[in-house]
Each structure stands twice: as structure tokens, then as C-alpha cells.
Amino acid sequence: MSEIFENIMKESSIFANRDALSPHYMPNSLLFREKQIDSIVKYLTPSLRGERGRNLFIYGKTGTGKTSCMKYVIEKVKEVPNIKARISYVNCRIYNSRYRVLSKIVNDHLPSYAKRGYGIVDIYERIINWIEEDGKILIVVLDEIDVVKDLDDLIYTLTRANSDIKSGGVTIVGISNKISFKEDLDPRSISTLYENELVFPPYNSTELAAILKQRAEISFKPGVIDEASINLAAAIAAKESGDARLALKILSKAGEIAEERNLTKITQKEVTEAAKSADEEVAYELVSTLPEHQKLVIYSIALLTMQGSKYKKLIDGAESYLFSGEVYNKYIAICNSIGKEPKSSRWYRNYIQDLEMQGLIITYESGKGIRGHTKLIKLSYSPERIKNIIEKELFKESEAEGRKESNELGGGALS
């Protein structure tokens, strides 16, 4: 037993600073994102000067640096004197409703007022009065904006504020993995946005290798990892998705494997082994952050994969595909069973495209002769794991909202 505690206090032979491989770590410079940082600053310059500027929406796949660049800009803005704006960064995964977002703004800038019991109208009016005190601009950064449950209401409230404010204003910065998320908004909300758009491309292998080298020099002790192993981790991540988070995860896990085996160096063997589990971990983290109806769609795919199709499956080696139509029918049945309004087939097709873009599913067109011309769908990861993750998320949301949902929809807690 004493050996266990001795190992806890033992100095690592691999890591000098583990945090440097975290996606939340902020290096002194963000490589290959100078253009995007310059664009963010350019679009926000009117607001930073105290003028009413256009809103900004930032898009890009997971791990393309959207959040890091925005946080980098926020930190740099703090160093500039005489800025006539105040910024609230809101993680919408945590603050996922209009009330919570407005409460976060009040907590950031008016902590003495941030007490329980105030209604949304009181909070809104207090924010308006605070802005008008000196004609400031409030910049609200909504990270993962698409997961806000009452997004139409939030957008309406924040854009309407500019009509109510006599001096000053509100600028919205929305960050999303989904370039199509605005299509879910009410046309009246869209018409009020008046926004600029900025798209972040995935990193290529060369860029990821440079990013990993930058982090590895901080994270690992000298001589622990060579350039070939870094390049391998970058190549694997670039092939999968160009996701910097995945690349960092691979390197971090490779270090952990080496540490567990009392090695003094990380080789390509540890990187290859780490890549197998790192990809799945990142994918499962992504599943837990999907918007509600995308969760329900991939949940339907997971259940059908486990339970078996009502129709004859197509076999590609040992891997089976599902018909898009049966997935949509399953999605409708689940929505009806938990009291959700299912989206139209057009939205369902958008969700399938988004899930494929994020690497969670694989699709292809069947061609003629197989129940007509249809799309075939295959899950990329363990259906059991995805089912458990989504059920946990849905139960958590149900408890928070005080809803009672059925536990038996056939084949699982939310089958």
C-alpha cells in the first residue's frame, strides 16, 4: 500500500508540465491563426471603440482553434487602455438558456446585483441601465451558441437591446461547430442579426506538427520525444479530421503510456497505441456536446445498430449499414415518446450531414435497386458507449427541467 502513495509523489520522468497538452492551455502565440485573429479584431474594432458594430459568427469543426483565438483576443483587449467595451465570455454548454446567459453577464459585471430571485425582465433592465451609464458597448461571446435551448429568445433579447438602449449597445459573437445552425432560428431572429462571418479551416499535418512541437517543448522533459513521433501524431490527427485537440490528446496519452511503463522516452510505438484510444475519447466528448436533436438522431442510429434493422441490412465485410428512412422513423418515435417535437426530414438530412462532417457516422448513396435510391448510414463508434452517453445527458437535462420522461421506449432506458 505504501508503494502506491510513494508513486503518487514520485517525480515524472516524462512530463515537465502536463497542462501544456490540454486544449484549454493558452500558449504565448497561436500558430497558423494570425489571419483569423486579425479578422476577429478587425470585425470587433468598432465595438471596442464604443460604436455599434456588426455581430460576428465564427464557424469551424472541433479543434480548429475558434475558442482559443477568441480567448486570446479577449486577453489582449484587456491590455489595451481606454477600451470602450466590456466583454462577457459565455460557455453555452454550461449557461444554456436565455436566463442563464443574462445572469452570467450580470455576474461578470454587476456582481453585487447577482442575487437569486430576480426575474428575466429585472435582469435585462439592469443590464440596459448599466450600459447606458456611460454609453459602453457590451460584447457577448457565446461559445457553442447552438446548444442554447431557447436561442430564438436569447437572440431576440440581445438584438432588441440595441433598440432599447439610448447610449451604447450590444454586440454578439457566436461560436459554433455548425455552419448551418442559424437555419434553425426563426426568420425574425435571423433578420435582426446583421452579422459578419468567419470560418476556421482544419489544420493540415505540417501545421499540427508545428503546434505539437510547440506544446511538447513545454510539456515534456528534454529529450523525451523525437521529431518523428511528433510528426506521426500530427499525421494521424490530420488524416482523421485536422483536429488539434485530437493531436494533443494523442501526445498526452502517449506520454501517460510511457510513464506507466517507466520509460524515459516516447516512441512511435506509444504514439500509435495512444491514437487508438484518443480518437474514441475525443469522439465521445463530441457526442456529449451535440445539440439536442443531433443527439437524438445519433441515438437512433446507435439503438438500431444494437437492435437490428427492420429491413434487410447491407453487409460490407462485417460492417452493416442502416437505411436513412428507418433512422428517421426511429428518431420521430423517440421524439414523440419523450415529448419532443421532431424536426422535418429536411432538418434531419442537415443533422446527418453535420454528424458525418464530425466523423461520427459514415454515409453513402445506395444506388438503384435497394429499396430505391437511398442513403446508407453506419455508426463510426461503439453504439453501446454512444447510447449510454446520450441517455446520461438526456436524463440530466430532464432532471434539471423537472420533466418526467418514459424509461421504456423499447430496448433501453430511452430506446
In short:
With 415 residues, this protein is α/β, with parallel strands linked by helices. It has 15 helices and nine strands.
Tell me what you see in this structure.
Helix 6 (about 150-165) links the parallel strand 3 (about 135-145) and strand 4 (about 170-175). The strands form 2 sheets. The protein has a 5-stranded parallel β-sheet with strand order 2-3-4-1-5, with helices on both faces. The radius of gyration is 24 Å and the shape is globular. Helices cover about 50% and strands about 15% of the residues. By secondary structure, the chain is an alpha/beta fold. It folds into 3 domains: about 10-20 and about 205-285, Helicase, Ruva Protein, domain 3 (Orthogonal Bundle); about 35-200, P-loop containing nucleotide triphosphate hydrolases (Rossmann fold, 3-Layer(aba) Sandwich), CATH 3.40.50.300; about 290-400, Winged helix-like DNA-binding domain superfamily/Winged helix DNA-binding domain (Arc Repressor Mutant, subunit A), CATH 1.10.10.
